[in-house]
Protein backbone atom coordinates (compact mmCIF):
# COMPACT_ATOMS: atom_id res chain seq x y z
CA UNK A 1 0.00 0.00 0.00
CA UNK A 2 1.39 3.37 -1.00
CA UNK A 3 1.81 5.73 1.90
CA UNK A 4 2.16 9.51 1.66
CA UNK A 5 5.02 10.80 3.73
CA UNK A 6 5.59 14.44 4.56
CA UNK A 7 9.04 16.04 4.67
CA UNK A 8 10.45 15.38 8.12
CA UNK A 9 13.33 17.02 9.90
CA UNK A 10 16.20 14.57 10.40
CA UNK A 11 18.62 17.02 12.01
CA UNK A 12 19.32 17.35 15.68
CA UNK A 13 21.89 19.63 17.28
CA UNK A 14 24.47 17.70 19.24
CA UNK A 15 24.96 13.96 19.68
CA UNK A 16 22.19 11.35 19.57
CA UNK A 17 21.88 9.91 23.07
CA UNK A 18 21.51 6.24 23.96
CA UNK A 19 18.32 7.12 25.87
CA UNK A 20 16.81 8.71 22.73
CA UNK A 21 17.58 5.52 20.81
CA UNK A 22 16.12 3.36 23.59
CA UNK A 23 12.95 5.48 23.69
CA UNK A 24 12.65 5.18 19.92
CA UNK A 25 12.78 1.39 20.17
CA UNK A 26 10.28 1.40 23.05
CA UNK A 27 7.75 3.39 21.00
CA UNK A 28 7.38 0.45 18.59
CA UNK A 29 5.86 -1.92 21.13
CA UNK A 30 2.34 -1.12 19.89
CA UNK A 31 3.25 -1.84 16.25
CA UNK A 32 2.80 -5.59 16.53
CA UNK A 33 2.92 -6.19 12.77
CA UNK A 34 6.69 -5.64 13.06
CA UNK A 35 8.82 -8.78 13.30
CA UNK A 36 12.27 -7.28 12.78
CA UNK A 37 14.09 -4.02 13.41
CA UNK A 38 17.41 -2.99 11.94
CA UNK A 39 19.44 -0.17 13.44
CA UNK A 40 22.59 1.55 12.21
CA UNK A 41 24.48 3.86 14.53
CA UNK A 42 27.28 6.04 13.22
CA UNK A 43 29.86 6.99 15.83
CA UNK A 44 32.57 9.63 15.60
CA UNK A 45 35.90 7.84 15.29
CA UNK A 46 39.10 9.22 16.82
CA UNK A 47 41.27 8.81 13.73
CA UNK A 48 44.95 9.61 14.15
CA UNK A 49 46.37 11.50 11.16
CA UNK A 50 50.04 12.53 11.17
CA UNK A 51 50.13 12.09 14.92
CA UNK A 52 47.05 14.25 15.51
CA UNK A 53 43.98 12.62 17.03
CA UNK A 54 40.46 13.63 16.00
CA UNK A 55 38.68 15.04 19.07
CA UNK A 56 35.35 15.85 17.40
CA UNK A 57 33.58 16.30 14.09
CA UNK A 58 31.61 19.48 13.49
CA UNK A 59 28.74 18.73 11.11
CA UNK A 60 27.05 21.27 8.86
CA UNK A 61 24.47 20.76 6.14
CA UNK A 62 22.58 22.47 3.36
CA UNK A 63 19.54 21.67 5.44
CA UNK A 64 16.67 22.50 3.07
CA UNK A 65 18.25 20.53 0.24
CA UNK A 66 19.18 17.63 2.53
CA UNK A 67 15.63 17.33 3.83
CA UNK A 68 14.19 17.35 0.31
CA UNK A 69 16.70 14.70 -0.77
CA UNK A 70 16.05 12.60 2.33
CA UNK A 71 12.35 12.74 1.52
CA UNK A 72 13.07 11.35 -1.97
CA UNK A 73 15.29 8.61 -0.52
CA UNK A 74 12.60 7.70 2.02
CA UNK A 75 9.96 7.45 -0.71
CA UNK A 76 12.24 5.28 -2.85
CA UNK A 77 13.07 2.95 0.05
CA UNK A 78 9.40 2.56 0.98
CA UNK A 79 8.59 1.82 -2.67
CA UNK A 80 11.30 -0.85 -2.81
CA UNK A 81 10.90 -2.58 0.57
CA UNK A 82 7.75 -3.51 2.54
CA UNK A 83 8.68 -1.45 5.60
CA UNK A 84 6.40 -0.66 8.49
CA UNK A 85 8.43 2.40 9.42
CA UNK A 86 11.74 4.21 9.07
CA UNK A 87 13.40 6.80 11.29
CA UNK A 88 16.51 8.82 10.46
CA UNK A 89 18.38 11.23 12.72
CA UNK A 90 21.63 13.02 11.87
CA UNK A 91 23.59 15.31 14.15
CA UNK A 92 24.68 18.85 13.41
CA UNK A 93 27.24 20.83 15.36
CA UNK A 94 30.23 19.52 17.24
CA UNK A 95 30.10 15.79 18.09
CA UNK A 96 32.91 14.38 20.23
CA UNK A 97 34.75 11.16 19.39
CA UNK A 98 32.75 8.24 20.75
CA UNK A 99 29.39 9.99 20.42
CA UNK A 100 26.62 8.93 18.03
CA UNK A 101 26.04 11.17 15.01
CA UNK A 102 23.75 9.04 12.81
CA UNK A 103 20.79 6.85 13.75
CA UNK A 104 18.91 4.91 11.05
CA UNK A 105 16.10 2.63 12.20
CA UNK A 106 13.99 0.46 9.87
CA UNK A 107 11.27 -1.99 10.80
CA UNK A 108 9.38 -4.61 8.81
CA UNK A 109 7.42 -7.82 9.23
CA UNK A 110 10.50 -9.91 8.48
CA UNK A 111 14.18 -9.26 9.13
CA UNK A 112 15.58 -9.32 5.59
CA UNK A 113 13.64 -6.27 4.37
CA UNK A 114 14.50 -4.27 7.49
CA UNK A 115 18.20 -5.10 7.20
CA UNK A 116 18.44 -4.42 3.47
CA UNK A 117 16.46 -1.18 3.70
CA UNK A 118 18.64 0.03 6.58
CA UNK A 119 21.86 -0.71 4.70
CA UNK A 120 20.65 0.98 1.52
CA UNK A 121 19.39 4.03 3.41
CA UNK A 122 22.72 4.48 5.21
CA UNK A 123 24.64 4.21 1.93
CA UNK A 124 22.37 6.74 0.23
CA UNK A 125 22.58 9.16 3.17
CA UNK A 126 26.36 9.11 2.99
CA UNK A 127 26.45 9.50 -0.80
CA UNK A 128 23.58 11.86 -1.49
CA UNK A 129 22.85 14.19 1.43
CA UNK A 130 24.65 17.56 1.38
CA UNK A 131 26.30 17.22 4.78
CA UNK A 132 29.90 18.05 5.67
CA UNK A 133 32.11 17.21 8.61
CA UNK A 134 35.03 19.20 9.91
CA UNK A 135 37.39 16.86 11.78
CA UNK A 136 38.76 18.88 14.67
CA UNK A 137 42.01 17.57 16.13
CA UNK A 138 43.09 17.69 19.75
CA UNK A 139 45.58 20.46 18.85
CA UNK A 140 42.67 22.61 17.46
CA UNK A 141 43.74 22.20 13.81
CA UNK A 142 41.21 20.66 11.43
CA UNK A 143 40.66 18.91 8.16
CA UNK A 144 37.51 18.21 6.15
CA UNK A 145 36.14 14.68 6.45
CA UNK A 146 35.97 12.55 3.31
CA UNK A 147 33.58 9.61 3.02
CA UNK A 148 34.93 6.30 1.75
CA UNK B 1 20.86 40.39 -12.46
CA UNK B 2 22.78 39.73 -9.24
CA UNK B 3 22.97 36.12 -8.08
CA UNK B 4 23.49 34.98 -4.50
CA UNK B 5 25.98 32.18 -4.05
CA UNK B 6 26.32 30.09 -0.90
CA UNK B 7 29.03 27.54 -0.22
CA UNK B 8 29.50 24.75 2.29
CA UNK B 9 32.15 22.52 3.80
CA UNK B 10 35.73 23.15 2.72
CA UNK B 11 34.61 25.90 0.34
CA UNK B 12 33.82 28.09 3.36
CA UNK B 13 37.60 28.22 3.86
CA UNK B 14 37.75 30.07 0.51
CA UNK B 15 34.52 32.10 0.30
CA UNK B 16 33.48 32.37 3.95
CA UNK B 17 30.12 31.58 5.51
CA UNK B 18 28.08 34.52 4.18
CA UNK B 19 26.33 34.49 0.80
CA UNK B 20 28.39 36.12 -1.93
CA UNK B 21 26.57 38.36 -4.40
CA UNK B 22 27.80 38.22 -8.00
CA UNK B 23 26.72 40.78 -10.59
CA UNK B 24 26.14 39.93 -14.25
CA UNK B 25 25.88 36.16 -13.99
CA UNK B 26 23.45 35.11 -16.73
CA UNK B 27 24.43 31.45 -16.46
CA UNK B 28 26.45 29.10 -14.25
CA UNK B 29 29.50 29.03 -16.55
CA UNK B 30 29.81 32.82 -16.38
CA UNK B 31 29.21 32.76 -12.64
CA UNK B 32 31.98 30.21 -12.04
CA UNK B 33 34.37 32.10 -14.32
CA UNK B 34 33.81 35.29 -12.29
CA UNK B 35 34.09 33.42 -8.98
CA UNK B 36 37.37 31.85 -10.11
CA UNK B 37 38.74 35.33 -10.87
CA UNK B 38 37.74 36.62 -7.45
CA UNK B 39 38.72 33.45 -5.53
CA UNK B 40 41.65 31.74 -7.31
CA UNK B 41 41.69 28.90 -4.73
CA UNK B 42 38.29 27.84 -6.06
CA UNK B 43 39.75 26.81 -9.43
CA UNK B 44 41.08 23.47 -8.22
CA UNK B 45 38.46 22.76 -5.57
CA UNK B 46 36.10 19.83 -6.22
CA UNK B 47 32.38 20.67 -6.04
CA UNK B 48 29.04 20.29 -7.77
CA UNK B 49 26.54 23.08 -8.37
CA UNK B 50 22.96 23.22 -7.13
CA UNK B 51 20.50 25.79 -8.46
CA UNK B 52 17.41 26.14 -6.27
CA UNK B 53 18.45 22.99 -4.38
CA UNK B 54 18.64 20.88 -7.54
CA UNK B 55 21.99 19.58 -8.76
CA UNK B 56 22.71 20.84 -12.27
CA UNK B 57 25.14 19.56 -14.86
CA UNK B 58 26.26 21.65 -17.79
CA UNK B 59 25.70 25.35 -18.24
CA UNK B 60 22.46 26.53 -16.62
CA UNK B 61 20.66 29.83 -17.18
CA UNK B 62 20.28 32.02 -14.09
CA UNK B 63 17.47 34.55 -13.63
CA UNK B 64 18.76 36.47 -10.64
CA UNK B 65 16.21 34.99 -8.27
CA UNK B 66 18.03 31.69 -8.09
CA UNK B 67 19.83 30.31 -5.07
CA UNK B 68 23.14 28.94 -6.30
CA UNK B 69 25.07 26.63 -3.97
CA UNK B 70 28.51 25.12 -4.47
CA UNK B 71 28.67 21.72 -2.80
CA UNK B 72 32.00 19.99 -2.12
CA UNK B 73 32.02 16.17 -1.75
CA UNK B 74 29.42 15.06 0.79
CA UNK B 75 30.64 13.64 4.09
CA UNK B 76 27.58 12.82 6.16
CA UNK B 77 27.28 9.97 8.61
UniProtKB/TrEMBL annotation, chain A:
Pathway: Cofactor biosynthesis; molybdopterin biosynthesis. One of its GO terms (biological process) is Mo-molybdopterin cofactor biosynthetic process. It catalyses: 2 [molybdopterin-synthase sulfur-carrier protein]-C-terminal-Gly-aminoethanethioate + cyclic pyranopterin phosphate + H2O = molybdopterin + 2 [molybdopterin-synthase sulfur-carrier protein]-C-terminal Gly-Gly + 2 H(+). Keywords: Molybdenum cofactor biosynthesis. It comes from the Bacteria. It is an enzyme of class 2 (transferase). It holds the Pfam family MoaE. GO terms for molecular function: molybdopterin synthase activity. Its EC number is 2.8.1.12. InterPro entries: MoaE_sf (IPR036563), Mopterin_biosynth_MoaE (IPR003448). PANTHER family: MOLYBDOPTERIN SYNTHASE RELATED. Heterotetramer of 2 MoaD subunits and 2 MoaE subunits. Also stable as homodimer. The enzyme changes between these two forms during catalysis. Belongs to the MoaE family. This is Molybdopterin synthase catalytic subunit. The lineage of its organism: Bacteria, Pseudomonadati, Bacteroidota, Chitinophagia, Chitinophagales.
TrEMBL record, chain B:
This is Molybdopterin synthase sulfur carrier subunit. It comes from the Bacteria. InterPro entries: Beta-grasp_dom_sf (IPR012675), Mopterin_synth/thiamin_S_b (IPR016155), ThiS/MoaD-like (IPR003749). Gene3D superfamilies: 3.10.20.30. Pfam families: ThiS. It comes from Niastella yeongjuensis. Signal peptide: none annotated.
Amino acid sequence: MATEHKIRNIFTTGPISASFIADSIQKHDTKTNIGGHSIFLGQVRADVIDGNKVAAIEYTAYEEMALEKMHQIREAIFAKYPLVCMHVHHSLGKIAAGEICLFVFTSSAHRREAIDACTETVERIKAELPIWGKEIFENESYQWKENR
Amino acid sequence: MPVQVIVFGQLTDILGHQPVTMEDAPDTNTLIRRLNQRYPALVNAPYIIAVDKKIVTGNTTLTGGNAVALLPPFAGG
